[in-house]
Design goal:
The two termini are 20 Å apart. Helix content is 48%, strand content 0%. By secondary structure, it is an all-alpha fold. The chain contains 5 helices and no strands. The protein has one domain.
Length: 148
């Protein structure tokens, strides 16, 4: 299962982000590329404990449902509902927002899968390994949204 903790997978994600342009139209969903960069940055910020996102004790926060969604079920194309905290940061300048995303990815990966991780607002208490898989899946989904 691809994980952001794998250096080759991470390099591929970083390369795809580098090829993204702010004008690129989405293939699905309503985000612009700058909004998407802020959205995935917010998700990584929450994982690192920099952004407080309240836990929602919904159906996805319990095993085995959370495991199935993280590891088996494809990410929904434009149909998912994001935690509101992941939608509040407006885009700034493209270069600064993209650099912030690169930094967040590096910080996330430097922490490693064996570290202590906060609960996910959507998936509840998950392991570091789960976080790595989920963040890769989330980034991959949004990069596919923009055809990179």
């Amino acid at each position: 299962m691809p994980t952001l903790f794998d250096p080759r997978i991470r390099a591929s994600i970083l390369d795809r982000i580098a090829r993204l342009t702010p004008e690129r139209p989405p293939r699905f969903g309503s985000f612009t590329a700058p909004q998407m960069i802020c959205h995935v940055s917010a998700s990584l910020s929450q994982a690192l404990g920099d952004l407080d996102a309240s836990l929602r004790a919904g159906p996805f926060s319990r095993f085995p449902i959370n495991w199935l969604i993280i590891y088996v079920v494809p990410w929904p194309g434009g149909k998912g509902k994001s935690p509101p905290e992941f939608l509040v940061t407006p885009p700034g300048t493209w270069g600064a927002d993209r650099e912030r995303l690169y930094t967040l990815i590096e910080r996330f990966c430097a922490r490693g899968p064996n570290a202590s991780w906060p609960a996910s607002p959507v998936f509840g208490r998950i392991s570091g390994r789960d976080w790595g898989v989920m963040q890769h899946k989330h980034l991959n989904h949004h990069l596919r949204q923009f055809g990179v």
